[in-house]
Amino acid sequence: MSAPLMFIPVAVVLIASLSATPAASARVAPGLEPVKTTGFDAIAIPLVSFNSDQGFGYGAVGGMYLYAPGKKPYAHAISAQFFFSNRGVQNHSLKYDGPRLLGPLRVEGRLDYRREIRSPFFGAGNQSAPDFRGDVNNELYNFEKGTPGFWLRLRGHPFGDEHPLQSYVGYGWRHMRVEAYERSMLSMEKPLGMDGGNMGQLLAGFLWDTRDSESEPQRGGVEEFSLRVSGNATGNRYHYVGLTLSERRYFALSPRLTLAHRMTLDMLFGDVPFYEWSNTGGVNVSEGIGGMNSVRGIERNRFAGNIKAFMNTELRYQAARFQVLGQQLKVGAVAFVDLGRVWHPGVSDGKWWHWHPGVGGGLRFSRRAAVVRTDYAVSTGSGRQRFYVTFGHMF
Predict the structure, then answer these.
(1) What is the pTM (predicted TM-score) of this model?
(2) CATH code of the domain containing 357
(3) How many domains are there within the chain?
Protein backbone atom coordinates (compact mmCIF):
# COMPACT_ATOMS: atom_id res chain seq x y z
CA MET A 1 0.00 0.00 0.00
CA SER A 2 1.34 3.40 -0.94
CA ALA A 3 1.86 6.05 1.70
CA PRO A 4 -0.56 9.00 1.85
CA LEU A 5 0.39 11.85 -0.45
CA MET A 6 1.20 15.10 1.34
CA PHE A 7 2.04 18.68 0.41
CA ILE A 8 3.78 20.21 3.43
CA PRO A 9 4.88 23.83 2.98
CA VAL A 10 6.71 26.03 5.42
CA ALA A 11 5.51 29.58 4.83
CA VAL A 12 6.28 32.93 6.36
CA VAL A 13 3.49 35.44 5.84
CA LEU A 14 4.48 39.10 5.70
CA ILE A 15 1.68 41.66 5.66
CA ALA A 16 2.46 45.34 5.21
CA SER A 17 -0.16 48.04 5.11
CA LEU A 18 -0.37 51.81 4.88
CA SER A 19 -3.66 53.70 5.06
CA ALA A 20 -4.63 57.32 5.21
CA THR A 21 -6.72 58.45 8.18
CA PRO A 22 -10.37 59.03 7.22
CA ALA A 23 -11.61 62.60 7.24
CA ALA A 24 -13.04 63.72 10.58
CA SER A 25 -16.45 64.25 8.99
CA ALA A 26 -16.68 60.64 7.84
CA ARG A 27 -18.92 58.61 10.15
CA VAL A 28 -18.10 54.90 10.22
CA ALA A 29 -20.00 52.23 12.11
CA PRO A 30 -18.00 50.57 14.89
CA GLY A 31 -15.83 47.76 13.57
CA LEU A 32 -16.31 48.76 9.92
CA GLU A 33 -13.89 50.50 7.59
CA PRO A 34 -14.87 53.36 5.25
CA VAL A 35 -15.64 52.49 1.66
CA LYS A 36 -13.37 55.27 0.39
CA THR A 37 -9.90 54.32 1.62
CA THR A 38 -6.40 55.04 0.41
CA GLY A 39 -3.05 53.37 0.89
CA PHE A 40 -2.01 49.82 0.10
CA ASP A 41 -1.74 46.27 1.41
CA ALA A 42 1.11 43.94 0.48
CA ILE A 43 1.50 40.24 1.22
CA ALA A 44 4.50 38.02 0.49
CA ILE A 45 4.93 34.31 1.17
CA PRO A 46 8.37 32.73 0.78
CA LEU A 47 7.78 29.01 0.19
CA VAL A 48 9.90 26.00 1.12
CA SER A 49 7.80 22.96 0.40
CA PHE A 50 7.54 19.28 -0.30
CA ASN A 51 4.81 18.12 -2.66
CA SER A 52 4.55 14.52 -3.79
CA ASP A 53 3.33 15.86 -7.15
CA GLN A 54 6.19 18.34 -7.58
CA GLY A 55 8.96 17.38 -5.13
CA PHE A 56 10.96 19.87 -3.07
CA GLY A 57 10.13 23.38 -4.18
CA TYR A 58 11.12 26.93 -3.45
CA GLY A 59 9.97 30.33 -4.57
CA ALA A 60 7.70 33.16 -3.54
CA VAL A 61 4.23 34.52 -4.15
CA GLY A 62 3.24 38.08 -3.44
CA GLY A 63 0.45 40.53 -3.98
CA MET A 64 -0.13 44.25 -3.62
CA TYR A 65 -3.49 46.04 -3.39
CA LEU A 66 -3.64 49.81 -3.92
CA TYR A 67 -6.75 51.64 -2.71
CA ALA A 68 -8.27 54.94 -3.85
CA PRO A 69 -11.46 56.83 -2.98
CA GLY A 70 -14.49 55.61 -4.89
CA LYS A 71 -12.78 52.54 -6.36
CA LYS A 72 -14.02 49.19 -5.02
CA PRO A 73 -12.70 46.79 -3.89
CA TYR A 74 -9.35 48.45 -4.79
CA ALA A 75 -7.87 50.69 -7.48
CA HIS A 76 -5.12 48.31 -8.64
CA ALA A 77 -4.00 44.80 -7.75
CA ILE A 78 -0.71 43.26 -8.85
CA SER A 79 0.39 39.74 -7.99
CA ALA A 80 3.47 37.76 -8.95
CA GLN A 81 4.63 34.21 -8.43
CA PHE A 82 7.99 32.53 -8.94
CA PHE A 83 8.24 28.82 -8.30
CA PHE A 84 10.80 26.09 -9.02
CA SER A 85 11.12 22.50 -7.88
CA ASN A 86 13.84 19.86 -7.97
CA ARG A 87 11.66 17.80 -10.33
CA GLY A 88 11.64 20.33 -13.12
CA VAL A 89 8.52 22.33 -12.34
CA GLN A 90 8.45 26.04 -13.10
CA ASN A 91 5.39 28.23 -12.61
CA HIS A 92 5.96 31.96 -12.98
CA SER A 93 3.26 34.58 -13.47
CA LEU A 94 2.50 38.28 -13.32
CA LYS A 95 -1.15 39.34 -13.00
CA TYR A 96 -2.84 42.75 -13.04
CA ASP A 97 -6.38 43.81 -12.09
CA GLY A 98 -7.64 47.38 -12.52
CA PRO A 99 -11.36 47.53 -11.62
CA ARG A 100 -11.81 51.03 -13.14
CA LEU A 101 -8.70 51.54 -15.24
CA LEU A 102 -10.44 52.63 -18.46
CA GLY A 103 -13.35 54.68 -17.21
CA PRO A 104 -16.05 52.15 -16.20
CA LEU A 105 -14.14 49.20 -17.71
CA ARG A 106 -12.22 46.71 -15.60
CA VAL A 107 -8.92 45.63 -17.19
CA GLU A 108 -7.47 42.24 -16.22
CA GLY A 109 -4.43 40.49 -17.62
CA ARG A 110 -1.92 37.77 -16.93
CA LEU A 111 1.47 36.82 -18.36
CA ASP A 112 2.90 33.44 -17.41
CA TYR A 113 5.28 30.61 -18.14
CA ARG A 114 4.77 27.03 -17.01
CA ARG A 115 7.02 24.05 -17.41
CA GLU A 116 6.41 20.58 -16.02
CA ILE A 117 8.55 17.51 -16.50
CA ARG A 118 5.74 15.47 -14.90
CA SER A 119 2.43 16.94 -15.99
CA PRO A 120 -0.42 14.57 -15.09
CA PHE A 121 -2.28 12.53 -17.71
CA PHE A 122 -4.53 9.70 -16.53
CA GLY A 123 -6.56 9.31 -19.70
CA ALA A 124 -10.11 10.45 -20.28
CA GLY A 125 -13.31 9.81 -18.36
CA ASN A 126 -14.67 9.38 -14.87
CA GLN A 127 -13.06 5.96 -14.36
CA SER A 128 -9.68 6.63 -15.94
CA ALA A 129 -6.52 4.75 -14.89
CA PRO A 130 -8.20 2.24 -12.52
CA ASP A 131 -4.82 0.74 -11.61
CA PHE A 132 -3.44 4.04 -10.30
CA ARG A 133 -2.35 3.65 -6.65
CA GLY A 134 -1.08 7.13 -5.81
CA ASP A 135 2.38 7.25 -7.38
CA VAL A 136 2.03 10.53 -9.27
CA ASN A 137 5.73 10.40 -10.21
CA ASN A 138 5.26 7.26 -12.30
CA GLU A 139 6.06 8.15 -15.93
CA LEU A 140 3.06 6.06 -16.96
CA TYR A 141 0.80 8.90 -15.79
CA ASN A 142 2.88 11.87 -16.90
CA PHE A 143 4.23 13.82 -19.84
CA GLU A 144 6.49 16.85 -20.23
CA LYS A 145 5.13 20.24 -21.29
CA GLY A 146 6.18 23.86 -21.57
CA THR A 147 3.61 26.61 -22.05
CA PRO A 148 4.32 30.35 -22.28
CA GLY A 149 1.14 32.38 -22.63
CA PHE A 150 -1.01 35.37 -21.73
CA TRP A 151 -4.61 36.56 -21.55
CA LEU A 152 -6.27 39.97 -21.52
CA ARG A 153 -9.87 40.74 -20.57
CA LEU A 154 -12.17 43.82 -20.47
CA ARG A 155 -15.10 43.70 -18.08
CA GLY A 156 -17.84 46.28 -17.50
CA HIS A 157 -21.40 47.11 -16.35
CA PRO A 158 -23.45 47.91 -19.48
CA PHE A 159 -26.38 49.29 -17.43
CA GLY A 160 -24.40 51.18 -14.78
CA ASP A 161 -22.25 50.36 -11.77
CA GLU A 162 -25.17 49.54 -9.49
CA HIS A 163 -26.78 47.10 -11.93
CA PRO A 164 -25.91 43.43 -11.28
CA LEU A 165 -25.26 42.59 -14.95
CA GLN A 166 -21.62 42.46 -16.05
CA SER A 167 -20.21 41.47 -19.44
CA TYR A 168 -16.69 40.78 -20.63
CA VAL A 169 -14.65 40.01 -23.74
CA GLY A 170 -11.06 38.90 -24.00
CA TYR A 171 -8.38 36.95 -25.76
CA GLY A 172 -5.98 34.28 -24.56
CA TRP A 173 -2.96 32.73 -26.25
CA ARG A 174 -0.60 29.92 -25.28
CA HIS A 175 2.03 27.83 -27.02
CA MET A 176 1.84 24.20 -25.95
CA ARG A 177 4.94 22.02 -26.21
CA VAL A 178 4.21 18.33 -25.58
CA GLU A 179 6.78 15.57 -25.10
CA ALA A 180 5.36 12.14 -24.25
CA TYR A 181 7.36 9.51 -22.39
CA GLU A 182 7.86 6.31 -24.36
CA ARG A 183 5.91 4.07 -21.96
CA SER A 184 3.32 6.59 -20.81
CA MET A 185 -0.46 6.43 -21.19
CA LEU A 186 -0.19 9.44 -23.48
CA SER A 187 2.09 7.52 -25.88
CA MET A 188 -0.20 4.51 -25.79
CA GLU A 189 -3.50 6.36 -26.28
CA LYS A 190 -2.24 9.08 -28.67
CA PRO A 191 -5.16 11.52 -28.21
CA LEU A 192 -5.67 14.62 -30.32
CA GLY A 193 -3.11 17.29 -29.41
CA MET A 194 0.00 15.12 -29.21
CA ASP A 195 1.85 17.58 -31.46
CA GLY A 196 1.07 20.61 -29.28
CA GLY A 197 1.08 23.97 -31.01
CA ASN A 198 -0.47 27.41 -30.63
CA MET A 199 -3.68 27.86 -28.66
CA GLY A 200 -5.57 31.09 -29.30
CA GLN A 201 -9.06 31.64 -27.87
CA LEU A 202 -11.68 34.36 -28.01
CA LEU A 203 -13.41 34.77 -24.64
CA ALA A 204 -16.81 36.27 -23.78
CA GLY A 205 -19.29 36.02 -20.95
CA PHE A 206 -21.98 37.48 -18.72
CA LEU A 207 -22.28 37.65 -14.93
CA TRP A 208 -25.24 38.52 -12.70
CA ASP A 209 -23.54 39.68 -9.50
CA THR A 210 -25.60 40.44 -6.37
CA ARG A 211 -22.86 39.90 -3.76
CA ASP A 212 -22.60 42.37 -0.90
CA SER A 213 -18.78 42.28 -1.22
CA GLU A 214 -16.45 41.01 -3.93
CA SER A 215 -13.55 40.06 -1.67
CA GLU A 216 -15.44 38.83 1.46
CA PRO A 217 -19.03 38.03 0.37
CA GLN A 218 -21.62 37.07 3.00
CA ARG A 219 -24.85 37.52 1.06
CA GLY A 220 -26.02 37.28 -2.53
CA GLY A 221 -24.37 35.41 -5.35
CA VAL A 222 -22.98 35.31 -8.88
CA GLU A 223 -24.41 33.52 -11.90
CA GLU A 224 -22.07 33.26 -14.89
CA PHE A 225 -22.26 32.09 -18.49
CA SER A 226 -19.03 32.07 -20.48
CA LEU A 227 -17.99 31.11 -23.99
CA ARG A 228 -14.58 30.37 -25.49
CA VAL A 229 -14.05 29.81 -29.20
CA SER A 230 -10.95 28.35 -30.85
CA GLY A 231 -10.02 27.96 -34.49
CA ASN A 232 -7.68 29.10 -37.24
CA ALA A 233 -9.02 32.66 -37.00
CA THR A 234 -8.07 32.85 -33.31
CA GLY A 235 -4.58 31.39 -33.78
CA ASN A 236 -5.47 27.82 -32.82
CA ARG A 237 -4.81 24.73 -34.89
CA TYR A 238 -7.87 22.98 -33.40
CA HIS A 239 -11.52 23.97 -33.79
CA TYR A 240 -13.68 23.67 -30.69
CA VAL A 241 -16.07 25.60 -28.46
CA GLY A 242 -16.30 25.66 -24.68
CA LEU A 243 -19.32 26.66 -22.54
CA THR A 244 -19.17 27.23 -18.78
CA LEU A 245 -22.11 27.69 -16.40
CA SER A 246 -21.38 28.66 -12.81
CA GLU A 247 -23.43 29.53 -9.73
CA ARG A 248 -22.01 30.94 -6.47
CA ARG A 249 -24.21 31.62 -3.43
CA TYR A 250 -23.49 33.11 0.02
CA PHE A 251 -25.69 32.96 3.14
CA ALA A 252 -24.93 34.90 6.34
CA LEU A 253 -25.89 32.48 9.13
CA SER A 254 -24.63 34.96 11.74
CA PRO A 255 -22.37 38.04 11.75
CA ARG A 256 -19.33 35.70 11.89
CA LEU A 257 -20.59 32.59 10.07
CA THR A 258 -21.14 32.31 6.29
CA LEU A 259 -22.29 29.35 4.20
CA ALA A 260 -20.78 29.51 0.68
CA HIS A 261 -21.64 27.21 -2.22
CA ARG A 262 -20.47 26.92 -5.83
CA MET A 263 -21.61 24.75 -8.75
CA THR A 264 -19.75 24.61 -12.08
CA LEU A 265 -20.55 22.83 -15.34
CA ASP A 266 -18.05 23.02 -18.22
CA MET A 267 -18.70 21.52 -21.68
CA LEU A 268 -16.37 21.23 -24.69
CA PHE A 269 -17.53 20.50 -28.26
CA GLY A 270 -15.56 19.85 -31.45
CA ASP A 271 -11.97 18.74 -32.02
CA VAL A 272 -10.73 19.17 -28.46
CA PRO A 273 -7.01 18.52 -27.74
CA PHE A 274 -6.32 16.43 -24.66
CA TYR A 275 -4.64 19.28 -22.75
CA GLU A 276 -7.96 21.17 -22.75
CA TRP A 277 -9.89 18.33 -21.09
CA SER A 278 -8.95 19.53 -17.60
CA ASN A 279 -9.59 23.27 -18.14
CA THR A 280 -12.72 25.32 -17.45
CA GLY A 281 -13.68 28.77 -18.67
CA GLY A 282 -15.10 31.81 -16.93
CA VAL A 283 -13.72 34.71 -14.93
CA ASN A 284 -12.13 32.32 -12.41
CA VAL A 285 -10.49 29.57 -14.47
CA SER A 286 -10.18 26.18 -12.77
CA GLU A 287 -8.50 22.83 -13.40
CA GLY A 288 -9.89 19.45 -12.63
CA ILE A 289 -11.34 17.26 -11.61
CA GLY A 290 -8.84 17.28 -8.74
CA GLY A 291 -6.68 20.03 -7.27
CA MET A 292 -6.93 23.19 -5.21
CA ASN A 293 -9.39 24.90 -7.59
CA SER A 294 -11.94 22.11 -8.13
CA VAL A 295 -11.93 19.08 -5.77
CA ARG A 296 -9.39 19.39 -2.98
CA GLY A 297 -7.82 16.18 -1.69
CA ILE A 298 -7.75 14.51 -5.12
CA GLU A 299 -4.59 14.52 -7.23
CA ARG A 300 -4.41 17.40 -9.66
CA ASN A 301 -6.34 16.72 -12.90
CA ARG A 302 -6.97 13.15 -11.78
CA PHE A 303 -10.18 12.96 -13.84
CA ALA A 304 -10.59 14.89 -17.11
CA GLY A 305 -12.94 14.95 -20.07
CA ASN A 306 -15.08 17.00 -22.41
CA ILE A 307 -17.75 17.57 -19.76
CA LYS A 308 -16.84 18.40 -16.14
CA ALA A 309 -19.05 19.19 -13.15
CA PHE A 310 -18.04 20.01 -9.59
CA MET A 311 -19.54 21.49 -6.44
CA ASN A 312 -17.90 23.16 -3.43
CA THR A 313 -19.53 23.91 -0.09
CA GLU A 314 -17.69 25.92 2.59
CA LEU A 315 -18.68 26.95 6.11
CA ARG A 316 -16.61 30.08 6.79
CA TYR A 317 -16.11 31.34 10.33
CA GLN A 318 -14.46 34.65 11.20
CA ALA A 319 -12.65 33.73 14.38
CA ALA A 320 -10.93 36.97 15.40
CA ARG A 321 -10.04 40.53 14.51
CA PHE A 322 -7.00 42.24 15.92
CA GLN A 323 -4.78 45.24 15.35
CA VAL A 324 -1.19 45.03 14.06
CA LEU A 325 0.65 48.35 13.78
CA GLY A 326 -2.69 50.11 13.81
CA GLN A 327 -4.17 47.99 10.99
CA GLN A 328 -7.00 45.49 11.33
CA LEU A 329 -6.26 41.86 10.44
CA LYS A 330 -8.76 38.99 10.42
CA VAL A 331 -8.28 35.28 11.10
CA GLY A 332 -10.88 32.76 9.99
CA ALA A 333 -11.48 29.03 9.72
CA VAL A 334 -13.21 26.99 7.03
CA ALA A 335 -14.73 23.51 6.82
CA PHE A 336 -15.53 22.24 3.31
CA VAL A 337 -16.87 19.42 1.13
CA ASP A 338 -15.98 19.20 -2.59
CA LEU A 339 -17.53 16.90 -5.17
CA GLY A 340 -16.85 16.37 -8.88
CA ARG A 341 -17.04 14.07 -11.89
CA VAL A 342 -16.55 14.06 -15.69
CA TRP A 343 -18.14 12.61 -18.82
CA HIS A 344 -16.26 11.86 -22.03
CA PRO A 345 -17.37 10.33 -25.36
CA GLY A 346 -16.26 6.81 -26.16
CA VAL A 347 -15.31 5.74 -22.61
CA SER A 348 -17.16 4.28 -19.62
CA ASP A 349 -17.94 6.95 -17.02
CA GLY A 350 -19.72 4.72 -14.48
CA LYS A 351 -23.09 5.20 -12.83
CA TRP A 352 -24.68 8.65 -12.60
CA TRP A 353 -24.03 8.73 -8.85
CA HIS A 354 -20.30 7.96 -9.18
CA TRP A 355 -18.83 11.28 -8.01
CA HIS A 356 -15.41 11.95 -6.46
CA PRO A 357 -15.51 13.72 -3.05
CA GLY A 358 -12.91 15.53 -0.95
CA VAL A 359 -13.34 16.92 2.56
CA GLY A 360 -11.22 19.09 4.82
CA GLY A 361 -10.66 22.38 6.56
CA GLY A 362 -8.39 25.39 6.54
CA LEU A 363 -7.43 28.81 7.83
CA ARG A 364 -7.84 32.27 6.33
CA PHE A 365 -5.71 35.36 7.06
CA SER A 366 -6.97 38.59 5.56
CA ARG A 367 -6.47 42.35 5.45
CA ARG A 368 -9.25 44.06 3.47
CA ALA A 369 -9.13 42.53 -0.06
CA ALA A 370 -5.95 40.53 0.62
CA VAL A 371 -6.59 36.92 1.67
CA VAL A 372 -4.14 34.07 2.33
CA ARG A 373 -5.76 30.62 2.08
CA THR A 374 -4.41 27.38 3.60
CA ASP A 375 -6.39 24.15 3.15
CA TYR A 376 -5.91 20.54 4.28
CA ALA A 377 -8.02 17.99 2.38
CA VAL A 378 -8.57 14.23 2.19
CA SER A 379 -10.01 12.23 -0.70
CA THR A 380 -12.66 10.00 0.88
CA GLY A 381 -12.33 7.61 -2.05
CA SER A 382 -8.59 6.91 -1.78
CA GLY A 383 -7.72 8.25 1.69
CA ARG A 384 -4.88 10.30 0.24
CA GLN A 385 -4.21 13.82 1.56
CA ARG A 386 -3.30 17.26 0.23
CA PHE A 387 -2.31 20.64 1.68
CA TYR A 388 -2.55 23.94 -0.20
CA VAL A 389 -1.32 27.50 0.34
CA THR A 390 -2.49 30.23 -2.05
CA PHE A 391 -4.13 33.66 -2.35
CA GLY A 392 -7.83 34.46 -2.23
CA HIS A 393 -10.91 32.44 -1.42
CA MET A 394 -11.56 29.42 -3.60
CA PHE A 395 -14.70 31.20 -4.86
Answers:
(1) 0.82
(2) 2.40.160.50
(3) 1
